[in-house]
Amino acid sequence: MLARLLLSVLLLAAFSDHASAVDLTFSQRRCLADIGRAGGTFFKDTTRALRKCRSQIAKGTLSAGTDCALEPRTASRINKAAARVRDKIAGRCTASLVSSLSFGGQCYGVETIPDLANCLTDTHEEREN
User: Fold this and answer.
1) What is the pLDDT of residues 54-104, one digit of tens each?
2) What is the reported pLDDT for 123?
3) Mind giving me the DSSP string for 63-118?
4) Which of 85, 107, 121, 127 has its CA 20 to 30 A from that of 47?
5) How far apart (Å, rounded) are the C-alpha atoms in residues 117 and 1?
């Protein structure tokens, strides 16, 4: 639980600009927290899917040259996790909330829910490979 909270805080720090939390409305803070949690959950789910694939390679169930990112079952799990990120952000954050927030890193300038979800998933997938 503590690790999850720490991950959420770190994700918020990485993806939010230098605006202090005092400058944000309750809805904006809640949206940012949900974005951080969604990113952390995506990372965990994707890592689990890739770990299962690599375990199958080690057991000989999958061939040694298998690219886990392209393996159908693993790719399906990753795609489902990405869809959950989009759904979670859209469920808690309105388009106007997302456009009112300033994100850092690779998500700088993102103003729409689909673009933010894509940025989060792309960023986490790059770190996992």
Assistant:
1) 999 999 999 999 999 899 999 999 999 999 999 999 998 999 999 999 888
2) 83
3) -TT--TTTSHHHHHHHHHHHHHHHHHHHHH--HHHHHHS-B-GGGTT--SHHHHHH
4) 107
5) 24
Structure tokens at 24: 């944000």
Do the Cβ atoms of 10 and 64 come closer than 8 Å? no
Residue 45 is classified by DSSP as: H
Helix (H) or strand (E) holding 23: none
Q: What is the pTM of this model?
A: 0.74
User: Contact at 8 Å (CB) between 69 and 129?
Assistant: yes
Residue 69 buriedness (CB in 10 A; 0-12 / 13-18 / 19+): middle
